[in-house]
Design brief:
169 residues, elongated
């Protein structure tokens, strides 16, 4: 593993070479120093560590959500249906290392709840405020919870028959 100074020297050399190729007359004026690259790389390393920490926290949150959905599915579904879904999940994802991929767990059990018309999911739909929107009502179902949606009477538009160019009497 390279030290920060070695990485900075490489970065400065590469950047200076690109500047010299692009602007040969001004290469010495636009040249970057190793010290400036050290500062840039340190800031980049801090940002990368923060990014990885956000991913780790998100993964933990998705794992907890997936386990919550799994327990709700177990309590709401018939035992044989739930066991079939659990067996399929283990066959598809069981041999993998799920670290960093807990969203698969949450998505699997969320889809299982949605596809089996879970009353819990329909009552706790994260998109419930969107159920009143006409675009979802025209689709007929909420894409998140699977609840059937109907157009309200004030939103129904009159249907017009298309008339031909030649009108018959």
């Amino acid at each position: 593993m390279l030290t920060i100074e070695q990485r900075a020297a490489r970065a400065a050399k590469k950047r200076n070479r690109k500047i010299a190729q692009a602007y040969p007359l001004f290469a010495d004026q636009f040249a970057v120093s190793v010290e400036s690259q050290v500062e840039r790389l340190k800031a980049q390393d801090v940002e990368a560590a923060q990014h990885l920490e956000r991913h780790r926290k998100f993964d933990e949150m998705q794992f907890a959500l997936g386990m919550k959905y799994r327990e709700i599915a177990k309590s709401e579904m018939q035992e044989n249906v739930w066991q079939d879904l659990e067996n399929r999940y283990q066959r598809i994802f069981g041999k993998r290392d799920i670290s960093g991929q807990a969203a698969f767990l949450a998505d699997w059990w969320h889809c299982a709840l949605r596809d089996n018309n879970s009353a819990w999911l329909q009552n706790n739909c994260p998109m419930s405020e969107w159920h009143a929107l006409e675009v979802y009502q025209r689709a007929g179902r909420c894409p998140c919870c699977g609840r059937k949606l109907f157009l309200s009477t004030e939103q129904k538009k009159p249907e017009y028959k298309q008339r031909g160019f030649i009108h018959s009497k």
